[in-house]
């Protein structure tokens, strides 16, 4: 069953007097449990696509079905609910709150879901243990390496068991060793049934996925299965 | 969720200690000013009221506004022929028969020179009768007060206020000693217990002699004032009306006299102090509003600085309401904390100030509660705009900010 179904998604911005069309009719389908990489050079519209996929923004036209529901015309308040329940984000620059420790950062999505504090802590601890940081619960982001910070961010993204894990250049700020660690966590999560979508410009990273969707100038140019050896 | 939001706000405030303190300063000063000024004003009101009540229970004062005329040798004290607008002693004493009146003390007042040996002083001379002591609530320290016999026999006897007794006789007991008033010898028969001062005027530096004697000493034929006491159960308003009617027939015009009751004095006083408290409260309220603008200013800066944090929170699912609540709780916490510090500071200031000025201060829990409530309102009102700006940020735009 398709978790994500996009039909003719277009997005344009007003620049001065002109409309700049960033996405020009994207149609794609991502099954539940799939591991997909969306690849494209900078300026190809992949960030805009990621914003729409992640319900941070809405398309100008077209339809976006997430778990069978058309959310392409949703207001911001309803989108917040969708983000809260269905999507876990991993950003290039980690985006942890510097004033909170690892445990508090990971518990944050649960706070907004209204989970009781005791259960918040338990589940945040489980998620951090899953990414190998069970011994760094009370460290602040500034006391962690880049790789560790990104693993905290992954723990935060999966703590509420969202159907979709969405990562935007997750290894962009990491050295190759830390990057490999992050990618192996994604593979492990995928193996346990998690739907993963990674947006990247790096072919090597994209090759960890099952399928690579290439976009260029706002349209999909190819969609290929990856054969792992 | 609310308690965790409170925790988040507290840590945001704690992370910027100096800035938070400076932000709160406006509210702190406003609330401290309210508390200190109101408790000083209330303390002053209470001490003045209790002194006015101490002047005498159910006191009614009749004052004539025309000056006394010199005693002419041709007229006698028993049938004085006074020009219109002046009261005779007979008229004054006849007020005692007005229903509801308990006691009457005619007053013949003026200043005179008192001397004991080489010691002289010049203070108020009060010619009155035995009722004066009871109407004015004086206690005796030594000897006795004026008696009815002193009045009817025109006896040269004097009773001293405690202050005047010390002035003239020092530590010695004045009773049964002789003093002179305008050169005429008088025998001291009693000394009054001290009563303190009101509006800077002492109630203890005067000399009382029989009013019959005072008229000849001061060369007056009229009565300048009358002090009356009402019976405990008397209707003071009706009583005042009856007195006014009688005085009007004697004195011709309402311009020539005034009748003042103690409750009138108290209500005048309370209206003055209420106005004073309103004015003080208004000034303090303005400073609280200024403090609120300070909070709004800092909250706007804080929202701008934390745009990325807001974007992150929104990306992971924070709703409009959750962000609104977070920033509102922060401004409420700033204002509430400022209010609490202000209450403590204001109480300390009023205690210290009260000690220095020797004034009594009355801490009022309702004023403190009101000031606290007002500072919370200020926090809510001035926090609303910054908080709604934060909550309305678009997540994509907010995340783009470095």
Automatic annotation (TrEMBL), chain A:
Residues covered by the ABC transporter domain: 4-229
Recorded GO CC terms: membrane protein complex; plasma membrane
SMART domains reported for this sequence: AAA
GO molecular function: ATP binding; ATP hydrolysis activity; transmembrane transporter activity
Manganese recorded as keyword: no
Keywords associated with the record: ATP-binding, Nucleotide-binding, Transport
Domain of life: Bacteria
Matching InterPro entries: AAA+_ATPase, ABC_transporter-like_ATP-bd, ABC_transporter-like_CS, ABC_transpr_LolD-like, MacB-like_ATP-bd, P-loop_NTPase
Pfam family, one: ABC_tran
Protein name as catalogued: Macrolide ABC transporter ATP-binding protein
Organism expressing this protein natively: Sulfobacillus benefaciens
From TrEMBL, chain B:
Keyword Phosphoprotein: no
Membrane topology of this protein: Multi-pass membrane protein
Domain ABC3 transporter permease C-terminal: 283-395
Localization per record: Cell membrane
Pfam families from the UniProt entry: FtsX, MacB_PCD
Main localization of the protein described in the UniProt heading: membrane
Gene Ontology molecular-function annotations: transmembrane transporter activity
Membrane-spanning intervals of the chain: 21-41, 279-301, 322-345, 365-385
InterPro entries, per database record: ABC3_permease_C (IPR003838), MacB_PCD (IPR025857), Macrolide_Exporter_MacB (IPR050250)
Residue ranges of every copy of the MacB-like periplasmic core domain listed in the record: 20-243
Keywords per UniProt: Cell membrane, Membrane, Transmembrane, Transmembrane helix
Keyword Ribosomal protein applies: no
GO cellular component, one term: plasma membrane
Family to which this protein belongs: Belongs to the ABC-4 integral membrane protein family.
PANTHER family: ABC TRANSPORTER PERMEASE YTRF, MEMBRANE COMPONENT OF TRANSPORTER-RELATED
Name this protein carries in UniProt: Multidrug ABC transporter substrate-binding protein
């Amino acid at each position: 069953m398709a978790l994500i179904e996009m039909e003719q998604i277009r997005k344009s911005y007003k620049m001065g007097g002109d409309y700049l069309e960033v996405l020009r009719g994207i149609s794609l389908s991502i099954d539940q449990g799939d591991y997909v990489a969306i690849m494209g050079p900078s300026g190809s519209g992949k960030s805009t696509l990621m914003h729409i996929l992640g319900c941070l923004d809405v398309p100008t036209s077209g339809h976006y079905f997430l778990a069978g529901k058309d959310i392409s015309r949703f207001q911001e308040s309803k989108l917040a609910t969708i983000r809260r329940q269905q999507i876990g984000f991993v950003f290039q620059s980690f985006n942890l709150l510097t004033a909170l420790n690892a445990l508090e950062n990971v518990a944050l999505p649960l706070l907004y879901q209204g989970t009781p504090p005791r259960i918040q802590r338990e589940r945040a601890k489980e998620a951090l243990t899953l990414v190998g940081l069970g011994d760094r619960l009370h460290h602040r982001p500034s006391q962690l390496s880049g790789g560790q910070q990104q693993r905290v961010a992954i723990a935060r993204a999966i703590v509420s068991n969202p159907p979709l894990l969405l990562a935007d250049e997750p290894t962009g700020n990491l050295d190759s060793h830390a990057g490999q660690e992050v990618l192996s966590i994604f593979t492990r999560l995928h193996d346990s049934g998690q739907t993963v979508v990674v947006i990247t410009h790096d072919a090597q990273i994209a090759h960890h996925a099952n399928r690579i969707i290439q976009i260029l100038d706002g349209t999909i140019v190819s969609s290929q299965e990856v054969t792992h050896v | 969720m609310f308690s965790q939001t409170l925790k988040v706000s507290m840590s945001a405030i704690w992370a910027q200690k100096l800035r938070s303190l400076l932000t709160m300063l406006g509210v702190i000063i406003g609330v401290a000013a309210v508390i200190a000024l109101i408790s000083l004003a209330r303390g002053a009101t209470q001490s003045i009221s209790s002194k006015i009540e101490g002047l005498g229970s159910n006191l009614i004062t009749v004052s004539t506004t025309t000056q006394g005329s010199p005693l002419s040798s041709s007229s006698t004290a028993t049938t004085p022929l006074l020009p219109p607008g002046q009261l005779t002693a007979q008229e004054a004493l006849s007020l005692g028969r007005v229903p509801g009146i308990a006691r009457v003390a005619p007053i013949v007042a003026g200043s005179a020179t008192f001397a004991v040996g080489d010691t002289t002083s010049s203070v108020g001379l009060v010619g009155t009768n035995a009722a004066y002591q009871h109407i004015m609530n004086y206690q005796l320290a030594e000897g006795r007060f004026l008696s009815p016999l002193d009045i009817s026999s025109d006896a040269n006897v004097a009773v001293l206020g405690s202050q005047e007794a010390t002035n003239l006789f020092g530590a010695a007991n004045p009773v049964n000693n002789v003093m002179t008033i305008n050169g005429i010898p008088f025998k001291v028969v009693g000394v009054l217990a001290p009563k303190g001062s009101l509006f800077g005027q002492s109630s203890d530096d005067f000399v009382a002699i029989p009013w019959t004697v005072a008229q000849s000493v001061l060369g007056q034929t009229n009565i300048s004032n009358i002090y009356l006491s009402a019976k405990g159960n008397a209707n003071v308003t009706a009583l005042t009306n009856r007195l006014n009617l009688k005085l009007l027939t004697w004195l011709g015009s309402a311009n020539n006299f005034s009748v003042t009751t103690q409750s009138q004095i108290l209500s005048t006083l309370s209206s003055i102090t209420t106005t004073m408290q309103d004015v003080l409260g208004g000034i303090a309220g303005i400073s609280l509003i200024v403090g609120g603008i300070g909070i709004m200013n800092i909250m706007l800066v804080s929202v701008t600085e934390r745009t990325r944090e807001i974007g992150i929170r929104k990306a992971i699912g924070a709703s409009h309401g959750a962000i609104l609540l977070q920033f509102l709780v922060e401004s409420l916490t700033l204002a509430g904390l400022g209010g609490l510090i202000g209450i403590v500071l204001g109480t300390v200031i009023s205690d210290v100030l009260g000690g220095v000025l020797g004034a009594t201060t009355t801490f009022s829990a309702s004023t403190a509660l009101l000031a606290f409530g007002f500072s919370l309102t200020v926090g809510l009102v001035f926090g609303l705009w910054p908080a709604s700006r934060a909550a309305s940020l678009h997540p994509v735009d907010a995340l783009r900010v470095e």
